[in-house]
Amino acid sequence: MTVDYADYVDAGEAVDQGALSGKVAGGDVAPPVVAGVDYERLLNAREEPQNWLTYYGAYNGQRFSPLDQINTDNVKRLVPAWVFQAGTTGLIAGASTYSFEAAPIVVDGIMFLSGWDGWVWALDAKTGVEIWRYKHAVPFDVSLCCGNVNRGVAVAQGKVFFVTANARVLALDATTGKQVWAKTYGDVRAGESATVAPLVVKNMVVVGSSGGEFGVRGHLDAFDLETGEHQWRCYMVPKPGEPGSETWPADGEAWARGGANCWITGTFDPETNLLYVGTGNPAPDFDGGVREGDNLFTDSIVAVDVDSGQIRWHYQCTPHDLWDYDSIGECILFEQDGRKLLGHFDKNGYFFVLDRTNGERVSITPFVDRITWGAITRDGQVTAKIYPDKEGEPVHFYPGPAGAKEWTHAAYSPKTELFYVPVQDTGATATRRRREFKESIPYWGAGVQVDIEDMAGSVSAFDAGGEEKWRWRNELPMCASTLVTGGDLVFAGEASGEFNALDARTGELLWQFQCGSGHHSSPTTYMVDGRQYVAVPVGWGGWAEGFLPGMLGAGHGSALITFALPEPS
């Protein structure tokens, strides 16, 4: 499909802030470690446990590392190895909006890391010494729904790929940080933006759009790695006449502003040749009266053929969403009894297991204590119970709009065959306020107040059948991704700053370190010169009013902290 970008507005050129810090793109050169990263290596990423080559560590989305140098016996000796301070400069990095949400990528001793405001850094993964930095021009008036954030980079064929808040995808030279190509794939004037970590598959880099709260039409795009040439676009809301269009009003343009953005990185199965992507909420949020029907393919798990960009199957988790329950959460790929399965923990509080070859439902079970919005039976029947139906009348429901688990990721260990889920048990009150659509203006159909009291969180371990095996309880919601390792450890950060290591088999707390700011990122682990490291970006913020408003005033931070066992003396 050809997309016309002729009318898109360019952001102009940024002041080279790297020059003001002594770091100029190309001034220092990283070893050419990314030159040899190709599709074959990405397919077999977990055969290189010393590296973290792609967003989830591997295409399967498991966030599992086989590394076991740090384990249940010695994790109590874990200490900080080095700290990288990212800083907080930037026109749109307001104290209440930016957040350090990235997942560090590591290739043969070199780390690649993104931040808010268009920042990308290359670091020595052993020492934390900065090699180069890149700063993209991001207009200060870009419309952002839920914080000035970026969730990470992808690497392949000598390049570092990332997206910017003003809806561009860029390729940088991995050795110098200099721009190789840049392409626009969203209209900032309409409220589109980008926050997703790209995914490299075959000869393409795949990215999704953000901006569903502004009444845009969500899409997934693929670009050629070498040239940046646009390969395909997959819209997640069908236009009239396309399959699924019958789930939108037949008259008007509700479909054209229907949301369903793909703002979290998908997973990929080379045997099915399918990308598995979660889609966002319909627009307007909360007010279903202007968009009668199930509103496909919002709040859905969508399987997309990676070569053609065509949808092969879908499963909708929350039809006709009235609670802001995006289904953008990761799709974790695993096998059981010879069957190719997919696990997905949804904002709506339910754990879905599907056959990933055809989307057939295998099981549905709740994973959070309080679910009052409605109910989903084991055979998939959805019944709405509480929702903002009448103008000006407040309605309280669980989970709140950030969900029982927001975008932050669960992990899966093939050793224990358990999923480890960061759980948010928080309610909210929504009061419907009908709003006329205006381009680039937030298209929310309600005023929302998230509970400031009576909340809880946990890291909960579930098997594939939905049975909870253990629960590590916390008095605050858990708002950061988990990481599980071959050392039978689950790492999980807290909103109050603690970084924890739990026993993956029992849930026992084995180690804790106070990082000085809350966690809302995705830790990764790697090895350099025979020493295992665990790296976690720390920087509280983003859409904190949506998941933990009681901590809006907490210290925001902007550091990457890396831990390891003490070196032998």
Automatic annotation (TrEMBL):
Keyword tags: Metal-binding, Oxidoreductase, PQQ
Domain Pyrrolo-quinoline quinone repeat residue range list: 52-362, 477-534
Presence of keyword Protease: no
MF-aspect GO terms: oxidoreductase activity
SMART domains, A to Z: PQQ
Uppermost EC category: oxidoreductase
Domain of life, source organism: Bacteria
Needed co-factor(s): pyrroloquinoline quinone
EC numbers for this chain: 1.1.2.-
Family statement drawn from the similarity comment of this UniProt entry: Belongs to the bacterial PQQ dehydrogenase family.
NCBIfam families named among the record's database cross-references: PQQ_enz_alc_DH (TIGR03075)
UniProt name for this protein: PQQ-dependent dehydrogenase, methanol/ethanol family
Naturally occurring in which organism (per UniProt): Streptomyces musisoli
